[in-house]
Automatic annotation (TrEMBL):
Keywords on record: Coiled coil
The keyword Coiled coil belongs to this UniProt entry's keyword annotation: yes
Family matches, as InterPro entries: CENP-P
Organism: Aptenodytes forsteri (Emperor penguin)
Source species taxonomy: Eukaryota, Metazoa, Chordata, Craniata, Vertebrata
Protein name, as recorded: Centromere protein P
Coiled coil: 6-33
GO biological process: CENP-A containing chromatin assembly
One GO cellular component term: nucleus
């Protein structure tokens, strides 16, 4: 009986040693995962969670407040569409790569500006360091119905090379407005 009791204890000890080994490995994995985030990111997450939790404890905004906010946003959007003439019809975003300080997303936009339609495809590279976030547009591809206008083709080519979306949208808005005026004028004389 002595040997059988000793064997039971040995088996129990071995089982406990294996469990300790598994728990130690799990602890090391958790420690490695937590080092992926900086102290600032962890503090920001905690503060965000606290704000969210306090917001839940105080209660949600009333439906009338949310409706007023939605109406305000719709009014702002309507104003911007009338002011620029740019209306987006579709947008898709796909994250291609994500690391602790670098994110690459692929965007596709389509829409129209007055009577001209356009499609954009580009990658947005966001790099984050301790103080700021910088964003760079790469692989810009623009498809426009420019007809036989070589100036528009040259402009689109140079914009694709530079990757400057702000210049593209400013110029598109101005060009499309005058393109619409010219079209209406020529229709008037036909």
């Amino acid at each position: 009986m002595d040997n059988s009791i000793c064997q039971v204890y040995k088996d129990e000890i071995q089982s406990l040693e294996e469990e300790i080994k598994l728990l130690a490995e799990k602890y090391e994995d958790n420690q490695q995962e937590s080092t992926f985030f900086s102290d600032e990111e962890i503090l920001m997450s905690i503060k965000s969670f606290q704000r969210e939790f306090q917001g839940q404890s105080k209660g949600h905004e009333s439906p009338s407040d949310l409706k007023a906010q939605l109406e305000s946003l719709e009014t702002d959007l309507s104003f911007l569409m009338k002011f620029t003439g740019i209306q987006f019809t579709s947008h898709s975003k796909k994250t291609v790569e994500k690391t602790t300080n670098r994110t690459v997303q692929k965007h596709r936009l389509s829409g129209n500006c007055h009577s001209l339609s356009f499609q954009l495809e580009f990658q947005l590279l966001e790099m984050q360091n301790k103080e700021n976030v910088s964003a760079v547009i790469t692989d810009l591809s623009i498809i426009m119905e420019s007809g036989e206008d070589s100036d528009v083709s040259k402009f689109v080519s140079s914009t694709e090379e530079q990757g400057n979306l702000l210049t593209f949208f400013r110029s598109l808005s101005s060009y499309a407005e005058w393109y619409e005026h010219r079209r209406c004028t020529f229709l008037h004389f036909k």
